[in-house]
């Protein structure tokens, strides 16, 4: 059963969550049918999700670009908010591909601001200068084709509007 539109995040709420949440989980299809699920830091620009990663995720997305990203926050059910993105990953293979992606530059600065200091200590925002290196350190642009969001803070009003 789909989530009623009235319980979804607004576009502004989605942008705010994506720009302030630190962690996402990205799922890729590993060898065979095994799912590889990994938490990562991320950026949000032009409706795409950007992340810098290495290893099995990069190998998986080169082989099969299908994936899912989940960003959520809060712990208790009445306070849960989140977004699930299904779509396609594009591995940016070199500095030329990175330079050609206008959204990546926005994501580099957003991540530099969001993660300044790394673990909460004060630091000045700085552009994330990571770049393709070795065989598997790469930026990935995740292009959502289907998005589901939810905001459980809206449930009481939704129930009241339905006479429940």
Write the layout of secondary structure elements.
Blueprint: H1 11-20, E1 24-29, E2 35-40, E3 43-45, E4 48-53, H2 56-63, E5 66-73, E6 81-92, H3 95-99, H4 102-114, E7 138-151, H5 155-161
Antiparallel strand pairs: 1-2, 1-5, 3-4, 4-7, 5-6, 6-7
Overview in brief:
This protein is α+β, with helices and mostly antiparallel strands. It contains 5 helices and 7 strands. Strands 2-1-5-6-7-4-3 form a 7-stranded antiparallel sheet.
Question: Which key terms come to mind for this protein?
Answer:
single chain, 164 residues, alpha+beta, Pnp Oxidase, Chain A, seven-stranded antiparallel beta sheet, 5 helices
- Secondary-structure-derived class: alpha+beta
Q: Quote the beta fraction.
A: 25-35%
CATH architecture: Roll
Summarize the biggest pleated sheet. Answer: 7 strands, antiparallel
Task: Enumerate how many helices there are, as a single number.
Answer: 5
Q: Quick one: overall form?
A: globular
Using the coordinates above, name the CATH class.
Mainly Beta
Q: How does this structure look, described?
A:
This protein is α+β, with helices and mostly antiparallel strands. The chain has one domain (5-161): Electron Transport, Fmn-binding Protein, Chain A (Pnp Oxidase, Chain A), CATH 2.30.110. It is built from 5 helices and 7 strands. It has helices at 11-20, 56-63, 95-99, 102-114, 155-161, and strands at residues 24-29, 35-40, 43-45, 48-53, 66-73, 81-92, 138-151. The protein has a 7-stranded antiparallel sheet. It is globular. The chain starts with 10 loop residues before the first helix and ends with a helix.
